[in-house]
Amino acid sequence: MSTRIAWKEHEQAVLLQALIDVMNEKTERKEAISQVSKRLRNEAESCGIKIDEKFRNENGISLQMSCLEYAYTGGKSGLHVTCGWYFDIVNKYQNDQVAFAELLKGASIVSKASTNNKSAFQKWLEPTLSEKASSAVIKELDVLEILLKKKGIIHKRILEMNAPDEISLLIDNIRSDKGIRIHSRSRRYSMIGGLIKYKEFLTHKDSDEETEEKDKPSSGINKSDFYLWMTKNKGLAEPTGRSYASAVNRCDSLCAEHNIGTGRIYGEESLDKLKSNIELLTLDYDFQVYNETQHNRLTTALAKYLEFMGLKEGRSFRKSKAEEVSMQEEIGQDELDRIRETLKLPRFEYGFKDDGVELYRFRASYEEVNGSDCSLSDDVLLNTIREMGVEFDGKVYLISDDSMKSIVDEINDYKNQGVNIVYYDSLYDLKFYEYSEAKIVSADMLKGILKHLMPQLRYRSNYFALTSEHQTELELIKNDIIRVWGSSTLRTFDELSMRLPLIPLDKIKFTLAQQPAFVWNSVETYMQADWFIADEAEMQSLCAYVDEQCEEHGVVSLDEIQFDHLIEANPEISETALYTCFCKLIEDRFERKARVLTRKGASKDTYTAVIEFCRKQEKCTYDRLESIAKRVAGIIRRPDIIEAANAVMVRVDKDDFIADRFIQFDTDRIDAALDYVITDDFIGMREITTFSTLPFCGYGWNLYLLESYCRRFSKKYKYETRRANSSNSGAIVVKSCMLSYHDIMVQAVARSGRDLQESEVLGFLTEAGYMERKKYRDIDLLINEAAQLRERRK
Fold this sequence. Notes:
The chain is mainly alpha-helical. The chain is built from 35 helices and 18 strands. The strands form six sheets. The protein has a three-stranded antiparallel β-sheet. Strands 4-6-5 form a three-stranded antiparallel β-sheet. A hairpin with a 2-residue loop joins strand 2 and strand 3 (395-397). Helix 1 packs across helix 5 (97-104), helix 7 (131-150) crosses helix 9 and helix 9 (185-214) packs across helix 11. Mean pLDDT is 83; it is low at 107-115, 210-220 and 313-329.
């Protein structure tokens, strides 16, 4: 789970102004929430902040607005809160309108990318790539930029992006095909390679800028100097020089990416820091693995760079065994206090990474805070830090005892209120301000702390239960919904969500739809089934009527039943809810199919009803079959009707079916004629445009008749489709062909010669008859597989 980002004052002001507009009836709450969400998400992205689907989404905005409402109205309405930024921003609004107006103008400053990035990037590439190769990298990024802008994924130029994390996200999404699909494999690789180069450039650039502020280099040493030294002074071949320069450039990037030492190799003129950075880098496991794949090219290049910097050979700076102190050292309280104060520094605010590099940084920080080195050995120091904090996801966090106690008290309070279920994400969102102050950085971390503090609770992957009874997730949510329902007959999704801030809205929706305790009334509105009022005498009368109609006609429509008295007793509910509640009360005697009731055990499904009817017919129309399905099964399922009718009859045109005995198929001659048309393992139905070679069978040939023939009569061919239809959609396939229908469409697209664009491919598949409509859930997968097939055929 991603780390939450605290609300800035500007965002707080925007939300408060929206709340004020809602309370003054200038705008609807839903619309205000939607507008605030879009604005804050867009502002964050413009600032280069990496956001996920939860960042300032509408659910979160709704929750925060309710908390803010409590502070703004002095507790008269809204969701109860006792502390947080809500009171601070309300106080500013009430006492300093000028400052509040300034916040609304947009205090979040959007950093603009440098217009010189392109030329700087090209110059950065020069020592390691030829001019032609550098131009190719820029060109690939330009092409990728066009594709991303067309899909609406980015709204600015790639070379205007200054955040390495932003480029990393693009790389990850292209690699995993998340919204960004490059169908040509070779182009995909070159585009990813270009992005990796640009990310390395940004990382190195940021590292240079940071270091320049701390320690301005006196000689301006850079990778160009290193390259020239190798080729001019040492006489190395140009390709070798480029290779070594590229290798050191890669090491420089790795230092920055993994926060090793001062995060740089190039430009680090402090020899002690340079040696320390190189040693820490070479001790890194990931580096060692990567270096082996490069046949130790990186370590060889680093040795050359040390020689270039005036160090003939690099020595190891690891402590000797004699210098390592026993784990049994006694640590005094003063030392513990000094370690604790160091951990409170902003650089460790969001965790101390449990590794050697972080320990190196900690020792430097310790010296800054305390004015002396930490005398403890690495092992003892690491163990001391671990015992002081909470370990999570490879980091150690310093969390106070007061914060721990507060968490336990809150959970016990929920239990006393009768809460059944709590979702980690929802709890974290609700208490985000307090948890952020306590340095609890994610819902996953909160989950780990809860398990440690309160092991007696029942924990699951995304929630924990406060009740001692072993109930399912849906049962727990159902109990909480009933607990907060109140006296109203009807409740909306939003009303229940406001009353259940510890349960995600989608879970509430799913439970309402799945649990028989609730009945759908209208859009986003439900009632409790037990609240339905039905007089016993009235129910007996209605059941008697239903029984009479079933005796005479086999079925009875709900539209024919007089529900006047039930409507009077339940004036708030809809017709749909009334039907559902009535059918629940009589479900022991009658079955419901759509708007039709039958005696229990007497109902038939669409397929069975149609096939039984067709067995007794010589001829019938499609409309007649639909009416039979509606009357007997209570519902029209067109694919079931088509499958059932074709199973026992022959379809001679769009409207008419006939019994088998009225038609004569010469299978050998028909299959032989099809051999001339079907030159591969399959052909789309609509690709067959002439029937002149097919022998007469008693009726004129058309695609409906051909489909019926291939379904049951052909010795060599079969009919396949995604979904039974009346649109001549499907394919005629050789019976020996074992391809799935998806693979058939992939092969058809690959051999079609059409451009592999979504609209073009869908157009071909419908024109050729493989699909009924221009809609396919796996169209991106199909296009990628067709592209790969074309490449293999080349």
